[in-house]
Design goal:
The protein is mostly beta strands and 660 residues long. It contains 5 helices and 37 strands. It has 3 domains: 398 residues, Peptidoglycan recognition protein-like (Lysozyme-like, 3-Layer(aba) Sandwich), CATH 3.40.80; 78 residues, Immunoglobulin-like (Sandwich); 112 residues, Jelly Rolls.
């Protein structure tokens, strides 16, 4: 067990000269500067039901806090939200084999009471590939030599949606403590079997002299008057202010192209942490998400403590909209603000509510997001997220909503959820007041004009890496290049999602794309204050499919190598009815084939599915490497077949599909 060091920092000094009875004036001392702190994480393995722990009469007592609102307990829960965010989370429970009135599922794991290092944050995790469906996780901890009651901890998603990036271990939301040194965990699953890799992770976030003053050293609230969007920004504690060790994570490159809705969250565990513990708790959540959940960064864009201090969570959340992990299936086009505390039976403080409203109003004003009414959010799918709808469904939700609206969880807790209608009204009033005073937010830089792409860049990007250019934009000191992409077998993501590639100071970028991808490149200006301009399109293009994707299904094909061919090789045949096939092509508008032409060469018929869409003739007066094109009568999907029509030589070195 490692005790947490707690320091008290004084910011003024009064000296009394007792000999002469002289009282000297107060001297203001500089606040200690925050420094990166590396948290310590301890793992407690949980291997099924411990027999001695099971004999404890209190082992199966109902957990306090929110009971997991699980799909099996709510088979008729609607996908669309009710206006008060309270109708779909429910509180009904199905009985279990262990105790009446328990959460749904069967007892799968119960750990012994285990001493640990002293911690402020804990959570339960398990292997993302586990087949077991977790229906309840509960923890109880020892603080000040006394064991508390069981508290339910909500299950969160495995990874981010929208960008197609899998992520990390399955697990729970973070559980807060004011300083515990022992823990016990209880887990229920549908089958009663223990999830593989089950463990409790506890985090000692360490301590720094600056923790006590994190709120006092926050970056000041916005005060601009040019309608840049930051006029009503609340005071923010930056990542450096809460002591983030940036080596624990990485910049998350996926960003939302627009803001459609904002989620309100809460954590689990205590509400009784001190003001000086808040920064350390944020560090603990950061360590839990990056080290225990294996995420690249903290999941929430912002966190608000019970004293009203606002902490910047995910990197660059103050200047951009990085996609977080706040609501599995619905992370793209949204942000999440986590209220630090549990609000199932306890009410949020007025300070917390006021700061929460200010963050929501700032973001709504800055990104032109309506506050009232509803919006359709597409379910992007996310493993282990417990979404109330199916991937691909579009659900209508309030613009400001609780996590429980779209996912099977009781987050942000009954007491905070019931405040959401009032929060929306307050946020709407604050946004309208900003519009009246400052006007509509305008970009400080304009739309960027793209330079025309070359023939080998568009509509097919034949080189793996090539340089794209754009015109200089007044006021820009650098440019951020973005992309969105999909393989030829997948639908393109919509423009709610972008991936940042590189930031450059010039007006060109040498960009790489893997074979088989369709890519849309874009660029936006960054001014001297770090403000981002509008996203401007550069080009939409496609890379040829990998050579191995051209399957030889019929006839005799030989691999030939020649330095003049694309990729220095080609499939060659001299027989009719020889076929090259690329399967499962998604939404193609043109088929382009890189082929060697010469006098006396043969023809290729092109099919999509069973439909013949064109013929390519490689019989040309002179030998050359050419790109031949078939334009389809409509956007088509399916298997693309190249079929030789003659007993004459045909050589194919590349196949590409235009998708726009």
């Amino acid at each position: 067990m490692k005790p947490l060091v707690r320091r008290t920092t004084t910011t003024s000094l009064v000296l009394v000269l007792s000999a002469g009875g002289v009282l000297l004036p107060a001297v203001e001392l500089p606040l200690p500067e925050a420094s990166a702190v590396t948290p310590e994480v301890d793992e407690v393995r949980v291997r099924g039901v411990d027999p001695a722990a099971r004999r404890d009469p209190s082992a199966l007592r109902a957990a306090q806090g929110h009971d997991e609102a699980h799909a099996d307990a709510h088979p008729d829960a609607p996908a669309d939200a009710k206006d008060d965010d309270g109708g779909t989370a429910g509180g009904t429970q199905s009985g279990s084999a262990d105790d009446a009135g328990a959460a749904p599922g069967r007892l799968a794991a119960l750990s012994p009471r285990t001493e640990t290092l002293e911690f402020l944050v804990a959570g339960v995790t398990w292997d993302a590939g586990s087949d077991e469906e977790v229906t309840e996780v509960a923890l109880r901890v020892r603080e000040d030599d006394a064991w508390g009651a069981w508290q339910s901890v909500g299950v969160e998603e495995v990874g981010a949606d929208g960008a197609g990036v899998p992520g990390g271990r399955a697990g729970t939301e973070p559980f807060l403590s004011a300083g515990a040194d022992a823990v016990q965990a209880r887990v229920r699953t549908v089958s009663g079997r223990t999830p593989s890799g089950l463990r409790v992770d506890v985090v000692d976030p360490g301590a720094t002299a600056a923790d006590a003053n994190a709120g006092a050293t926050a970056q000041p609230a916005g005060s601009a008057n040019a309608a840049t969007g930051d006029e009503i920004r609340p005071a923010l504690v930056p990542r450096s202010g809460w002591g983030a060790d940036e080596s624990l994570g990485e910049v998350w490159p996926e960003v939302s192209g627009r803001l459609d809705a904002m989620y309100v969250h809460h954590t689990a565990g205590t509400n009784s942490y001190s003001r000086s513990q808040s920064a350390a708790i944020v560090r603990g959540i950061y360590a839990y998400h990056t080290q225990s959940r294996d995420w690249p960064d903290i999941g929430y864009q912002f966190l608000v403590d019970r004293y009203g201090t606002v902490f910047v969570g995910r990197r660059e959340a103050a200047t951009d909209n990085p996609i977080g992990a706040q609501a599995g299936g619905f992370n793209t086009g949204t942000i999440g603000i986590s209220a630090m505390g549990s609000f199932d039976s306890a009410s949020p403080t007025s300070s917390l509510l006021r700061s929460l409203e200010r963050v929501l109003a700032w973001k709504a004003y800055r990104y032109h997001m309506p506050v009232t009414g509803t919006v359709g959010l597409p379910n992007g799918g996310s493993s282990g997220s417990g979404t109330r709808s199916d991937p691909g469904d579009v659900v209508r939700v309030p613009r400001i909503l609780g996590h429980r609206t779209t996912n099977f969880t009781a987050c942000p807790g009954t007491r905070l959820a019931e405040r959401l209608p009032a929060i929306r009204r307050a946020v709407n009033a604050m946004k309208n007041a900003a519009l009246d005073r400052y006007g509509t937010v305008r970009f400080t830089t304009g739309t960027i004009t793209a330079r025309a792409a070359k023939g080998n860049q568009y509509p097919i990007q034949w080189p793996a890496r090539t340089r794209f250019h754009w015109a200089a934009e007044p006021g820009a000191v650098r440019y951020q290049v973005l992309e969105r992409y999909a393989g030829y077998r997948s639908p393109m993501p919509n423009e709610r999602y972008w991936r940042r590639i590189v930031t450059v100071t010039g007006t060109s970028a040498n960009l790489y794309a893997a074979e088989g991808l369709s890519v849309q490149y874009a660029v936006r200006a960054v001014d001297r204050n770090g403000r981002l301009g509008p996203i401007s399109h550069l080009v939409r293009t496609t890379r040829p499919v990998p050579f191995a994707s051209m399957a030889r299904t019929t006839g005799t094909w030989a691999l030939v190598r020649n330095g003049s061919y694309y990729r220095d090789r080609a499939w060659s045949t001299v027989h009719a009815d020889s076929r090259l096939v690329v399967s499962d092509v998604e939404r193609v508008t043109q088929v382009r084939v890189m082929t060697a032409t010469a006098p006396g060469r043969g023809r290729l018929a092109v099919y999509v599915g069973s439909t013949r869409v064109g013929v390519l003739d490689t019989d040309r007066p002179s030998a050359a490497q050419r790109v031949l094109t078939v334009r389809l009568p409509r956007t088509m999907s399916g298997r693309v077949t190249l079929r030789t029509l003659d007993d004459a030589r045909v050589r194919v070195s590349g196949v590409a599909f235009v998708r726009w």
